[in-house]
């Protein structure tokens, strides 16, 4: 097996008016979990590879670093460190079960010996982890789980080290051999090791490898298996490495003397890691096209990334899930490095604009614990509860958190302009009222009612699950003609995937007395007249974005200041369009309600524009419910059969 065999995938891309052929690197990792000592012990075969000698002295655990993955990469060491920096700070993006990360200690890049009073390990154990290298940075962080009632919090120690080394073979102990010919090649490592595990069942914490003693070998793994979160590998440590390729550095210098390298040069390249462009390769390539000015950088091997595990052979066989997790993380390290080299920033939707992430997740965790399991088990509808239950819980969590912030803002604003008055304080702590138009299964309405918000849900037809909510949940089945809807004393109007009512939500809110706030989450594409929306020619960003723009134009005509939020829900239609205040700046001494009333009374031209828009759209025609459609089909079928029977009778006379 050739451990250094990377590959280059050749593809033509147009970088100018003249077509220019470029090549791009392909992810080609080699894994060797089957060669680990714990796997070989299970197969009762003699393990011929001896783990690395302990350079710190005679340690009773006899640990060794074993390399399990290696892949050539088209990026340099600086990119490797940039990615690892992001990984440490953005743990939830790498480990989904983690809610957030707290940095407890960071020595920074001071270039000093980082073993001090803050180190969680004994000097001997630290040297085992560091493999007799001197770290230039040490970081201790705390990983807080999303499921705080089920998964434990844990602490993790991270070291950044660099040393001169030779590339080692995959599946063998990471035996390092210094060579003067590779004086430029400094192998870099980011080492991760568990420190303290605090369980949820007890306030006590178990410290692995604490400063007083090293636990017995057989007890250490048992402690990790019992105390570490399910997502964390039950091993004493692991590390990601980077090995520069001296030839890659030299070729980089040579490339500066030429305009570009032709495709033919790659076909006959004899360097390791480069194959003929027309050769077959089963690895999946990174599909993002490289910018023209970085094409050369992305088709050369700058080095290798590696993954090593600190093992003693007593960890037990790695499960398929754990191997899969390591492989996915290794691939993600490669992809992030490639994208960083390209200067590529993934276009991500901005979450948590109106509601802080911590508040939302705290609220979501609470509501999920109260409602998820109950309705997952008792869902009477044919729809998939895994989607609808969790989606409605997520939307309810966001609304409850948003309304909590709104009440706090009202109280603070009142206190700034007037002395505290118990009656006014009680008034503005009153929970918001709402109407949920097109409420569907009604679960969102039910949760908001249960959370103390008075409101009603309306839909064209009742659902089976409505009877399960109880008398505390107000739901109505009736057909609405939106141009005739008049609401009074309602704080919020909700349009969650409200179909043909979606474009009407801001209009109904503006016409309410007093003016209401609203949130609309568009889904299906309907016009104001109830028919399917006709898209204008050309919508390069897609139909959903074009329909959002249509709803936003109505919000603009209604005079609201538009706010948007990408909701954390299991749906691609997750954009919430919110109107909480009118576009005119709030004047001093006015709260939101005073501002909306003043705007409503002085904004007759806005109402006139809305009336004109409604008049031009034509008469709204409500769609038939599924129940009515079935009844109509049955009546048509009956009439057809009667006509056929009458025809047969006439023919007999």
From TrEMBL:
GO terms for molecular function: tRNA(Ser) (uridine(44)-2'-O-)-methyltransferase activity. Residues 38-58, 243-284, 584-605 are annotated as: Disordered. Pfam families: AdoMet_MTase. Gene3D superfamilies: Vaccinia Virus protein VP39. GO terms for cellular component: cytoplasm. It comes from the Eukaryota. One of its GO terms (biological process) is tRNA methylation. Residues 39-49 have a biased composition (Basic residues). Its EC number is 2.1.1.211. Keywords: Cytoplasm, Methyltransferase, S-adenosyl-L-methionine, Transferase, tRNA processing. Residues 585-596 have a biased composition (Basic and acidic residues). InterPro entries: SAM-dependent_MTases_sf, tRNA_uracil_MeTrfase. SUPFAM superfamilies: S-adenosyl-L-methionine-dependent methyltransferases (SSF53335). It is an enzyme of class 2 (transferase). Residues 246-257 have a biased composition (Acidic residues). It catalyses: uridine(44) in tRNA(Ser) + S-adenosyl-L-methionine = 2'-O-methyluridine(44) in tRNA(Ser) + S-adenosyl-L-homocysteine + H(+). It is found in: Cytoplasm. Belongs to the TRM44 family. Probable adenosyl-L-methionine (AdoMet)-dependent tRNA (uracil-O(2)-)-methyltransferase. Adenosyl-L-methionine (AdoMet)-dependent tRNA (uracil-O(2)-)-methyltransferase. This is tRNA (uracil-O(2)-)-methyltransferase. It comes from Lobosporangium transversale.
